[in-house]
Amino acid sequence: MRIDRNTGLVLEGGGMRGVFTSGVLDAFMKNGVYFHYVVAVSAGACNGLSYMSRQIRRARISNIDYLAQYKYIGLRHLVTQGCIFDQKLLYDDFPNTLLPFDYDAYFNNPDEFEMVTTNCLTGRPCYLNEKHNRQRLLDIVKASSSLPYVSKIVTVDGVPMLDGGIVDSIPVMRAIERGHSGCVAVLTRNRGYRTSEKDRKLPHFIYKNYPRLRVVLSHRCETYNRQLELVEELERSGRILCIRPERPVDVGRMEKDVEKLECLYEEGFYLGDKFCRENIFTA
């Protein structure tokens, strides 16, 4: 597939498995490969921000080096902040002081970047972007990455939202519907993967004020497997290209083992670099 300015880039989530995506994106930046439309969800949105601001290795430092230093995943954060991730560190201290995000470069980038969230009232995906307001930008990426059950609901534009992966883990159809008939999808699971988790009806007291959210959560596994089947069908037909781990991934959604994360990052960088060398890019 020839990759031109109308080719979309789709970034899956996956929690800490997103270090694979950060490796791929660092390889893209090393090779000067930039897409003019990017749609990303959850961890993909977090990593995508550094790609859009052209800050190579920033996501790697956040996901690996600073995880070892600050230990920002743990039950103590769930108790103190209502989220298993230290959200103050990730969405305030990191971008504003410890690992400064280049807001100016991001806001001045003419390319489009959409982040996927789940509207808790409707149970539908929202595709949001922001090119002016720093706090709204951080609120959107926080909502897109707020895992159900272990994160607080995040309000954006007065609407309660959670992780976009609940309803649209791999937003290839969003890219196609926006007119990007050819897409490159960066996935965080190997080819042929299907979740073996079973969908279950939620206890009545979980998200009782959000009945439509409860419905989509009770079908989450089925929805994800259907999306994986769609992606493989589009790939076989030549409509999309996929970059994915070559072997089953031994990294959990909330992985803390830095050596495992480093290996997955390096695999992503290698495959991203290989992709850049083997494909034709036109402006």
Keywords:
283 residues, alpha/beta, eight-stranded mixed β-sheet, 11 helices
Task: Give your account of this protein's structure.
By secondary structure, this protein is of the alpha/beta class. It is built from 11 helices and 8 strands. The protein has helices at 19-30, 43-52, 58-70, 75-81, 87-98, 103-108, 134-144, 172-177, 211-217, 220-236, 258-278; strands at 8-11, 37-41, 112-119, 125-128, 154-156, 159-163, 183-186, 240-243. Strands 1, 2, 3, 4, 5, 6, 7 and 8 form an 8-stranded mixed β-sheet that branches. Strand 1 (8-11), helix 1 and strand 2 form a beta-alpha-beta unit. The longest helix has 21 residues, at 258-278. The radius of gyration is 18 Å and the shape is globular. The mean pLDDT is 96.
Helical segment count: 11
- Helix percentage: 40-55%
Uncertain spans: none
The structural class is: alpha/beta
What shape does the CA trace take?
Answer: globular
How far is the N terminus from the C terminus?
14 Å
Largest sheet: 8 strands, mixed
Average pLDDT confidence is 96
